[in-house]
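Translate sequence into structure tokens.
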Amino acid sequence: MSLLPTSQSILQTSLNLLFPPSCLNCQATGRWLCRQCRDALPTISTPVCERCGMPSGTSSDSICFQCKNNPLLSIDLVRSAAYFEDSPLRPAIHALKYKGRKVVAQELAEILAEACERFGLGADIMMPVPLHQARLRKRGFNQSELLARSLSKLNNISLDTQALIRTRATKSQMELSAGERHENVKDAFECCRSVTGQTVLLIDDVCTTGSTLDYCATALKANGAKTVIGLTLARAR
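Result follows.
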């Protein structure tokens, strides 16, 4: 392995010297999410529902009421690093997703790596939730892929950005009710190669109802995936 710095890392170091990072939540200089704001994250930890990952407040019941009565169909479990609302993660995710601050993904991936360790998550392969080509062209990048690329380097799980594709354009999930979110992404994904017997770690930025992750899992299991685990930075309360 070469120890020489890449041109990209040299450029980023130079930019950091000229324009030091400042916290996207409190504007303190030094990092995109300063240590004080990192420590203030409303972190999600056990006990949580075994399926959807929502905090249960008690270890006496491993499956929450929602999952007993209206369960996710295909994904085996979902875990999230922290809550989205009233969280320093919110401005950081918005800066990455809507303002093109791609460099933020590296620090956010550290939070994902901590969640992986906290929940004991492991996998054979990692995949980002894909964007449709039309949205990818408009935005210029897939924020979930940037997160997955950085996380893959931190936890040494191999990354596949080609196997899972979004086959049709969908509306933004932010604008929709829970039922509409479900219909919006139904049958919107396809896995274009075999993942027989593999455990797949599926990466996204925010989980609200879990519908997107669930339909990605449906496509992966149709091509042989043994287990699909969803991991997101943030979770809507």
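Note: The mean pLDDT is 90.
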